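Standup notes
- HV: blocked on the assembly model, inputs below
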Amino acid sequence: MRFRNLTIGQHIPGNSVVHRLDPRTKILGTTLLIVLLFAVNGFIGYGLVALAIAGVIHLAKLPWRYVIRGLRPLLVILLLTVGLNVFLTEGEVIFRLWFLTITREGLARGGMMGTRLVLLIVGTSLLTLTTSPIQLTDGIESLLNPFRRLGVPAHELAMMMTIALRFIPTLLEETEKIMKAQMARGADFQSGGLMQRAKSLIPLLVPLFVSAFRRADELAIAMEARGYRGGQGRTKFRELRFGRIDAVAIALLVTFTVVVGVFF
Amino acid sequence: MSIRLENVSFRYLEDTPMETEALLDVTLEIADGEFVGIIGPTGSGKSTLIQHFNGLLLPSSGKVWVDGVDLTHKDTQLRQIRQKVGMVFQYPEHQLFGETVLEDVGFGPRNMGLAEEEVVERVRRALAYVGLDFAELKDQSPFELSGGQKRRVAIAGVLAMEPSVLILDEPTAGLDPKGREEILDEICTLHRERGITVILVTHSMEDVARLVDRLIVMDRGRVALDGTPVEVFRQAETLKELGLGLPQVTELMHELKAKGMAVDTDVLTVEAAEEEIVKALGGQR
């Protein structure tokens, strides 16, 4: 089914250097990447970032096709962004067809925006592809900890994220199951006008909500039965450890960001 | 209405690192009016297999024909096939959504484009098949019913389309013994009186021994055994290797025989077992 093509938020288990990095390092790296992509202006800069991302994919031993396929759900947004930039930027006209004009500036800007988006999507998807949800939330919790004094409920936020991430596949599976069951009764989710389609979702959404509430209830009881009382005094089975490869990785990341960000 | 599978293989998550083979080169035919049981350990491909019978899944390779229609052909109207091959999923009560029982059970017939009176008539009949009272329940919310009643309403929702093949995936899971018994009896009656083909997926050896004419045993995506229950239960060794057992009475007869009693082990019911033992003891009770 169509949900199967979703690679955003998916995790591919592995044992590469990238997989073994501390999640905090990877979160920091992703943040730097986002900053860098908006700081860079020019194709040389983007080329360097693309090379760096390719390097990480190679190091992480991720299947290329799979990573690239993560772009598919966002293809429409991507085409729209590039298209709007190409056709609506004013400047030196190089091509004209009826009401469409393409300018040199538009072409350049559209190319830049497109590259930026592609790199952004591929780059950030590397975080979840190489980090398990548990590690990811542990990392976020640990990064938020200093802000606890300001009243940020770090543990609770992290726990909520863990649960939400944990239930994405479950809910997708449930959705697929209910869809199939209703399709077996002749339901049609694809054809008809907007109203018709919205109405056809009722047999899907009602059972989905009912089951989500039931699951939430069961989970709450199961957590209480195991003595969960929030983050206070809770110890961890897997402590986050900041190792030498993390230090090296951060040094590399920061240097790369500063150099590329400043010079290109 | 017959169902025929030819060299069907199916892979989940094709072309991703998580690709898994769920069915491997399955060829089988289910004839009109059969009562077929499908058993097999968890993950053996039972659920994947039955979803090929009404085109909810299409094979990665191979062909499926229902009533002579090729489901893998792109012009095949799968919705029509699904009306003829009714499918009751595991825990079907999880798919209830209607504000009233009438609305929920009538969902299938309404999707078939039937007139409202016909829909109501079919709901009445479908509820009767599963032993529920139309007048009493039609305006109630399905969410307020008991667990067993919910299950029946959900099964009625499939029966209301009056399919000629009925597939049930563990229809009695999570019910109490009385509820199990009643639902299985109702399915049996449907098979007998209306002559519909029934395909029953279950974990219970007792149920299949008692009900079905033919038993298909699945193992790791392949058909491991296929025959009458007596024939299949003769392969006690193979079944044990697959982590499946025998019905309790059959097991008992096997043990008696091992202890030296001259009994026939092709026994599936308590009554037949009694007769066998009496015979072996020389006719006195």
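- HV (later): unblocked. Residues 10-131+237-264 of chain A form one domain. DSSP finds eleven helices and two strands in chain A.
- Next: hand off to the docking folks.
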